[in-house]
Amino acid sequence: MTTTGRHGLEGAGEERQQVVISSPEELIASIPAMLGFPPESGSVVVICGRLAGGGQGPVVRLDAPGLVDHPGPDDDPSGTDVPAMDEGLARGLARFCAREQVAEVHLVVVHDDCADSDTARARARETAEEIGCWLEVAGTALATAYGVGEFSPGAAWIDLFGMEGGRQLDPDSTEIAAAYAFDGRIRARSRAEIEQLYRQRDPGARDVDRGRRPARLRGRPAVDAAVELHEVVARRADSGEPPADEDLAAVGTALLDEAVRDEVYSRLARAGLGDEDGRRTLWWALARRRPPRERSVALTLLGAAAYFEGSGVHARAALEAALDARPDNTLAGLLVDGLDRGLPPERLRRVAAA
Question: What is the pTM of this model?
Fold first, then answer.
């Protein structure tokens, strides 16, 4: 399969590095970089092929608690047939594939010992078969299905529907990992670590909003001046100058005006973040040091940047933290809805940049 340096649901910029994945070992080893973390046991990773519009399909992680919460059929004295896959998740995946006309997908089922235990392998295969049935209804082919117990150099992998198998490559050695590292994509040890990253606060952070929300800026000149202040502080951060508290207060307050926020958001859609982009530094500082309303806007911009880059895990973590800080943040809510509906990053960018 062919993929890109910026990939998936869970990029920005006109130039994209094309990466051809030509072996099961490389496909499996690329998953931690694609998702941003190594998925745990009880997960199914779905790598979608091309969309109808020509864009690269997403990489999606689904929970399959039946893999780990229930014994296999040989060990279950009741003989109860417990589903290995949540049908709602599988059905949602099939609806997305049908809507976007995804021709084929590749699956990797993560289940402890599935490369060594016949019972575990049977449970993993059952999960793949259940997803395959839903995909068939949607007109999407299940191209390959592999099973792994973990993501580690030399760990075993198996073909769930054949006799093939082998040993994994180092996840850090893949072209996808190199491309994402160049783009500044953060890779964590777990999903929980990513979620915690967006909830952190600096010591001495201001945690109480002062008074009422500032009045809406009047007139385009005032909005333009506020946007320019944001750009000036971001450029200073880009050159290595940490944002001062007074600058954070001025920028954070200005971003509470929707016209200012929307212009910054639109510029982000037109030109995504680079590795050491000063806007990223500025928004992290706002998120960790300013009061809840300003923190919520900064987290929304960080979440939008991750969404545009195709990193759905980081996008969701940032946007949910934004909603925790301010539940009435409508832009964050709309972006979360886009993630839930599987709206491709390229389509969201086009709308946001207009």
Answer: 0.77
Alpha carbon distance 223, 244 (integer Å): 21
Residue 63 CB contacts under 8 Å (≥ 6 apart), including other chains: 42, 43, 44, 86, 89
Q: How far is CA 218 from CA 69, 211, 258, in A?
A: 58, 20, 12
Report pLDDT digits (tens) over 81-115: 555 666 778 888 899 899 889 999 999 999 988 88
Beta bridge partners of 280: none
- DSSP H helix total and E strand total for the chain: 14, 8
In 304-326, which positions are buried (b, 16+ CB within 10 angstroms) versus exposed (e)?
Answer: bbbbbbbbbbbbbbbbbbbbbbb
CA distance 75 to 96: 35
User: Phi first, then psi: what are they for 323, rounded to 5°?
Assistant: -70, -30
Instruction: State how beta strands 141-148 and 104-110 pair.
Output: parallel
Task: Provide mean pLDDT across the span 41-69.
Answer: 83
DSSP H or E segment with residue 288? helix 278-289
pLDDT attached to residue 129: 93
